[in-house]
Task: structure prediction
Amino acid sequence: MKNKRFSINKLFYNNKIVLVFSIIIAFGLWIKISTGSSESVTKQISGIPITINLSDSATENGLTVFGIEDVTAEVSVSGNRIILGQLTQDNIQIFAQQSAGLINTTGNYTLELAARKKGVLTDFEFASNVSPNFINVFVDRASSKTIDITPEINYHADPTYFSSPITLSDSKVTISGPDSVVSSIAKATVEGEIKGTITETTTLANLPILLFDDTGKKITTTNLTFSTTKVDATVPVLSKKALEVSPTFSNQPTEMVFKNNKFKATPSSIEIASSKEILNTLNKIETESLDFSKINLEHSEFNLSLKVPNGCRILNNIYFSNIKLNMNGIQSKKINVDKITFINLAESKHAEASTADFKVEIVGPANEIKSLKSSDIYAQIDLSGKESFTGNTELPAKIIIESAPGCWAYGSHKINAQIK
Result:
């Protein structure tokens, strides 16, 4: 008969034994946790904001405490391990102890700090004094000021290039803080230096804003807040190029072109500044458009504004050019117009001119003017946008000249018409 060996492994396959064993372990853990949680421990709570309450009279007098915005304190607490595990900065208030009416005017104050419980979690004790134990604060009335920022950038630009005034990413700054400090601010600047000789636009980034009083003394920025603390300074250095002035025209006859020998521009060229890439694409500078209906033998000289190309700057502050047209070989003649036509008339409408005929001054080359007859000219009225109109009205008329491609009509013309 064989003897049966005892095996511990077999015990863990016995459900009754495993159940008893689990109960014993759980009971032991409960005993350990229960006895441990009642043990008093200490914990450091840091990063606690500081509260300083002013009296009603001080608040009504406009006084504000400065210097505590980014200051925090810490204190040690003791108590049940479970309670302290839930404790945060929100359960403690750090406040300044002060006698009634202590802060009643502007100035510097040294205040002692103390701690007290806050909220529903109060089953703990303070185990140390607040650190720091004292705090220095400044009391004043709040004020703000918006001031221009002055760039003070040292640089040397190549004299063959054009350098325009320095530009800033923000030209103004708003400063807020104690009135005694804010009111003393007379100047805001950014400083920088570009070494060497520069031949292109250069930017200095993230320059800090500096403050000075009216004596030139630098003002410390403690207790001050800025709408922006740093700005970028750009020194525009541009290439230069002289461009010929070229007049542009509207309503120009198909065969009437005022070439260089047909006009005189004063000044005839303009110097502009821009990047090399832009200047390489330009060979002239155009004027505002001159309508041919404004040109005749008595009106052939005009002051026209110059159209500045995008990204360019005109130098010497010249923004107009005098354009004098050469009218040699040009004549004019007044011709009676008795033919009036309508275009873009709604199908359901009928239009007729109340004006029977009128005279028009025609200007152009002498050979064309000489042979021009009334039958070669008619007035055209465009009724676009008048589809729903019925009644009498005055409408602009376009003068059409047939068989004379170099001629044009001087002046503007209107026709009385009836639309039925």
Summary: Helices lie at 8-11, 15-37, 56-60, 81-86, 179-182, 276-279, 366-371.
